[in-house]
Amino acid sequence: MAEPVILVTGATGYIAAHTCVCLLERGCKVIGIDNLSNSSPRVIERIQQITRRSIDFHRIDIRNQTALTAVLKHYRIDAVIHFAGLKAVGESVSEPLKYFDNNVCGTVTLLRLLQQYGIRKLVFSSSATVYGEPAAVPVGEAAPTSATNPYGRSKLMVEQMLQDIVRADNSWRIATLRYFNPVGAHDSGLIGEDPRDIPNNLMPYIAQVAIGRRPYLQLFGDDYPTEDGSGVRDYIHVMDLARGHLAALDRLSAHDGSFTVNLGTGRGVSVLQAVAAFERVSGKVIPVQRTARRAGDVATCYASVHRASELLGWHAEHDLEKMCADHWRWQCNNPEGY
Ligand code: NAD
Ligand code: UDP
């Protein structure tokens, strides 16, 4: 049987790079597209170094219909994993149109062309942010959705658009994956998260403190109704997340229909617990400065993982120590990023 051909949008991004490694190791042919707005072309070399397989990369913006059409005409694509998007919450508040244009209009362009070229299998990168402030944890897929910022709204809008598309034409098979908090890196230390500016997210910030690029971590709020007062999240190793995409593709190949599924570990970890784990693994002290809560943050959010287990036969395997150890190796090997 011919190797499956998978188009990966946003291919040089953090989560996509790790997923490309899994796809190549599985024997898929990978066509990667990215406009490099938030990533480095070096990622492609690194993926190829890890897997000793090649990836067809095109520097393309998903909103560029002509360029995208050329790619869709050139390959016999079996399925698409759609990672491309902007993800900085703060920036989305100050520049909402940029987010709606990129994340929503970009996805419309992509979907229209997929429809035109008869490609009906899609995996979409959504986020736990669509749960807003969850009324109860662990949060299941049927929980109410809401958005507190334009980034979250762009994810929700795409999710709703995908539901409408499936309703109108049930030949679509769409997996909407709601990621919790991806962290860690491939254990080669060759690929990992490489924030361009000051990191917004906890783990890359801690790693930059540990390596000496920043003096201390600001703890955003120590008065949440949690065990130690700091915010609780569901951190998931990026390689577990990457495997989740393969499980989703397998499900789409084997069954009709579409689904929405959480990808998390099902366990909540506080900021202070994450700091302590990183200190243990790195042997470094992470100074912490307690500051006010960050606007829009929720106290506690972690996933119900039953549906992922039932539908995909998937569950996260790596623990917090491994997440920190792999993140730290990547940071040490690449102190300034790629
Ligand atoms: P990332 O920024 O590392 O990767 C996204 C990639 O998409 C980047 O390489 C960027 O250059 C590319 N891109 C952006 N707009 C594009 C466009 N118009 N055309 C082509 N390429 C474009 O981010 P990531 O953390 O790997 O996230 C991947 C996806 O997962 C995003 O859709 C994000 O919203 C979603 N997500 C991420 C997280 C997280 O915490 N990292 C959590 C939930 C969901
Ligand atoms: N956080 C923090 N300092 C930082 C970055 C994050 O205290 O510099 C906290 C944040 O308030 C939240 C947790 O770490 O409780 C995870 O934040 P992140 O931005 O990584 O994920 P999200 O809040 O989007 O789930």
| Total number of helices | 11
Number of strands: 13
Major sheet strand order: 3-2-1-4-5-6-11
CATH architect. name of the domain at 5-184 and 236-264: 3-Layer(aba) Sandwich
Main structural class? alpha/beta
As a whole number of angstroms, the C-alpha radius of gyration is 19 Å
Commentary on this structure:
There is one protein chain. The protein has a domain at 5-184 and 236-264: Rossmann fold, CATH 3.40.50.720. It is 41% helix and 17% strand. The chain is built from eleven helices and 13 strands. It has helices at 14-25, 42-51, 65-74, 89-94, 96-116, 150-168, 202-210, 238-254, 271-282, 306-312, 320-333, and strands at residues 5-9, 29-34, 56-59, 79-82, 121-127, 173-179, 181-183, 217-220, 232-233, 235-237, 259-263, 269-270, 288-291. The radius of gyration is 19 Å and the shape is globular. The chain binds nicotinamide-adenine-dinucleotide and uridine-5'-diphosphate (UDP).
What is shown here, in short?
This protein has 338 residues and is of the alpha/beta class.
Secondary-structure map with pairings?
Layout: E1 5-9, H1 14-25, E2 29-34, H2 42-51, E3 56-59, H3 65-74, E4 79-82, H4 89-94, H5 96-116, E5 121-127, H6 150-168, E6 173-179, E7 181-183, H7 202-210, E8 217-220, E9 232-233, E10 235-237, H8 238-254, E11 259-263, E12 269-270, H9 271-282, E13 288-291, H10 306-312, H11 320-333
Parallel strand pairs: 1-2, 1-4, 2-3, 4-5, 5-6, 6-11, 7-10, 8-13
Antiparallel strand pairs: 9-12
The protein binds nicotinamide-adenine-dinucleotide and uridine-5'-diphosphate.
